[in-house]
Amino acid sequence: MPIDFHDPHNQNTYTTREADIRWMYTLRPYLPENSFTALDLGCGGGIYSKALTLLGASKVIGMDYSASNLVGAEMNCKEYPEIEFILGDALRTGLRDQSVDVILERALIHHIKDLDNCFAEAKKILSLNGLLVVQDRTPEDCLIPGDRHHIRGFFFEKYPRLIQQEISRRYTSEQVKETLAHNNFELLKELEFWETREVYSNAEALYQDIRGRTGRSILHELSDEEIEQLIVYIDDQFKNNPMHNIVERDRWTIWIARSKLSQEFSTKD
Fold it and tell me: In angstroms, rounded to a whole number, what is the distance separating the alpha carbons of residues 182 and 184?
């Protein structure tokens, strides 16, 4: 069954990692040079709320629709006084107009059915020339074969029934770009990014992570027995090449866009 983000048992599933340093280096050139206010929309366990402070944000608002997620996020970020966590909705944040300078929507939009209103709300609360960073997987990102770095690909090879479920909730690159343009955003950059998810000292550490379904909502579609069969399948792929110091990476698409002035001018003869 799908993951229940409101279940207290899942409140720490998105708190166990640190943001990839290469991810921070990739974003830094686009962010304001001076202190800025950032919104981590769909913040989960606060991993990227922390990263935004390290990137120069003087204030970060971490917003999520799950109170359970926010409990885990507050614990994860308890040493970061510049981060405030708020229960909220991506379509109706309740924030003041033009009150934030940067919005991060990482792994958010595949949970959103109304992408147009999601970006319209971002446009509304962003300051003039504010930055919107959207990071998610396209259907193409989801279908990359599994290998010793791209562990996620093995999930769909073992259980093909998950493929349609996974890609049906993903937006194409064209859909994202068209919706950004419709809401008067200027696309500055679109890029494919292989983000390091985790480094494991050995295969068993990876398998324990899979058993816990940690940060992997798609695995909640599998029974405990199917999880064990998945682990056997992954292990079989490397039986002649034991895995040590496994660097797991996932491919994402990142769209970096700037809020433009509203084009509300009329021409007169």
Answer: 6
Is the pLDDT at 35 greater than 80, yes or no? yes
- Give pTM, 2 decimals: 0.87
* Cα separation, 46 vs 18, whole angstroms: 10
Q: What is the CATH number of the domain that holds 115?
A: 3.40.50.150
Q: Which is more confidently placed, 240 or 145?
A: 145
| The predicted structure's pLDDT at residue 217 | 87
Q: Which domain holds residue 65?
A: 8-145+164-199+252-259
Whether residue 69 contacts residue 40, with contact meaning beta carbons closer than 8 Å, is answered with no
Which of 140, 138, 143, 169 has the alpha carbon at shortest distance from 154? 143
Judge whether 109 lies within some domain. Answer: yes
Question: pLDDT-derived band of residue 244, with 50, 70 and 90 as boundaries?
Answer: confident
Q: How far apart are CA 70 and CA 64, in angstroms?
A: 7
Among 128, 154, 179, 165, which Cα is nearest to 229's? 154
Number of domains in the chain: 1
**pLDDT (mean) for 257-262:** 88
Q: Is the pLDDT of residue 239 over 90?
A: no
Residue with tokens 């690159």: 173
Q: Is residue 269 part of a domain?
A: no
Give the sign of the dihedral formed by CA 174, CA 178, CA 36, CA 91: negative
